Structures are given as structure tokens and as C-alpha cells.
Amino acid sequence: MNIKDTVKENITYSKELLEAGIDGANTARKEVLTAEDTNDLVTCATQESWQPATLGLLAGAICGVLADDRRPIRGVVAGGVLGAILGFAGSFIWKTRPLTSAMARNAGKRINAVRDVHWLSKHPVNYG
Q: pTM for the whole thing?
């Protein structure tokens, strides 16, 4: 087998793995978001993440004032924006972990199934 065929095969295999992972994540996302107890998970997570964003804004502004001696306004703005983004993102990620864990779990299962098929095509099992 030459290098060109090996590269083609690896690209095809990588594409199959990527498609399996994306398909698994999308399937889990649809299942979790349409479930009765989690249908408003993202909305609630967004609404509840503003308080940590505000705390991040305040903490970032204070750190920005302390860190930038020459231009404290620039430090306040930069630190406040960074703190708000980190506070909101951290809270949102934490509150949507049932969704992200289901997506990761299902993607992993689909990827492992593709890997098993690929391994068996390379290493056929001969019973008998």
C-alpha cells in the first residue's frame, strides 16, 4: 500500500469519526432538549447566569483598577468586560452540564462504534 492510499484511507476514517461524533452530539442534544424535565434548560441557564456575570464584572473592574496604574479607566473597562464574560460563561457551562455531558457521552459511543468497525475491518476475527 503506497502513501497516497494510506493518506486517503486516514482522511476517510477521520471524516467518519468526525461525522459520527457530530451525529451523536446532535442526537443527544435533541433528546435532552425535548425531554419534559429539561425542555427549558438553556433558557433557565441563561437567565440564571446574569448574577455571576455581574459579580465577574465587579471583580474584573476592581482588578483592572489595581492592575493598570497609568490608565485606570482602560483597566476598569477591560477587566469588567473580561470578568463579565468569564462569570457568565462559567455559570452557563455549569448550569447546562446535563446537556453537554449527554452530548459528549453519545458522541463517544458513536465514535467508539466507528472505531470498532474500522478495527474489525483491519483485523478480522476468524472463529473456527
A: 0.72
The type of residue at 105 is R
Question: What is each CA distance from 11 to 8, 18, 39, in whole angstroms?
Answer: 5, 10, 37
pLDDT tens digit sequence for 40-94: 888 899 999 999 999 999 999 999 888 877 778 888 999 999 999 999 999 999 9
Burial bucket for residue 63 (CB in 10 Å: 0-12, 13-18, 19+): middle
d(CA 117, CA 6) in angstroms, rounded, equals: 18
| Domain definitions of the chain by residue range | 3-122
Give the pLDDT confidence of 8-27 residue by residue, as tens digits. Answer: 999 999 999 999 999 999 99
* Angle at CA of residue 23, ends 22 and 29, nearest 5°: 90
CA-to-CA dists, residue 79 to 4, 102, 103, 116, angstroms: 51, 34, 33, 48
CA distance 94 to 72: 32
